[in-house]
TrEMBL record:
Plays a role in the regulation of diverse cellular processes such as ribosome biogenesis, chromatin remodeling or protein chaperoning. Modulates the histone chaperone function and the RNA-binding activity of nucleolar phosphoprotein B23/NPM. Efficiently mediates chromatin remodeling when included in a pentamer containing NPM3 and NPM. The lineage of its organism: Eukaryota, Metazoa, Chordata, Craniata, Vertebrata. Residues 112-125 have a biased composition (Acidic residues). It comes from the Eukaryota. This is Nucleoplasmin-3.
Amino acid sequence: LLPGCELTARTKSYTFQVDEEDDSDHILALSVVCLSDGAKDECNVVEVIGRNHENQEIAVPVANLKLSCQPLLSLDNFKLQPPVTFRLAAGSGPVHLSGWHRIMHREDASFEVDDDLSDEDEEELPPIMPAKK
């Protein structure tokens, strides 16, 4: 989970990053973005800032919340790769973000190839025959 990730007028951004020397794969999934107690009836735009496949920084708005019409948005586990920054691009919040972080450890074990299997051991399938009328 993203404990304590709340964007406000004083804390406009939150960066989630992992240790660069960590040899694991990390996935961050954003589940819900919602206005918290004390929010004003104004547009609150939340952006996600990350890097694309060419390692260029990009900012994408993911939520536009307003207390009177849309105080909560479910993002259905929108998956991101750290490092990623969440920024309150407009509004004063408070906006609460929740989600989960998964760590997948890489195994150093190599795949062993079984040399005992040969092409002759594979079962051959009969050819497909046309249907009878």
